[in-house]
Specification:
Elements lengths: L1 H20 L8 H11 L30
Keywords: Signal
Pfam families: Excalibur
InterPro entries: Excalibur_Ca-bd_domain (IPR008613)
């Protein structure tokens, strides 16, 4: 049982490490970044914390003002 839990812990850590390497410049559209953020919990793509990833990309923010980390 300990080996299974350790394996799951290692997988979850490495899974998040992959997500942290991605940035807005890795996507062509906001929709692609949004899907990635939701699938991999890559919330660092949401610079202003409003739930929208990479708002400066084509198809971006529905709020008018936005921040984007490129």
């Amino acid at each position: 049982m300990k080996h299974i839990l350790l394996g799951l812990l290692i997988l979850s850590i490495s899974y998040n490490a992959v997500a942290k390497r991605m940035s807005c410049k890795n996507f062509k559209t906001q929709a692609q970044a949004q899907a990635y953020m939701e699938r991999y919990a890559a919330y660092h793509l949401d610079a202003d914390g409003d739930g929208e990833a990479c708002e400066c990309l084509p198809g971006g923010s529905s709020y008018g003002s936005s921040k984007c980390r490129k």
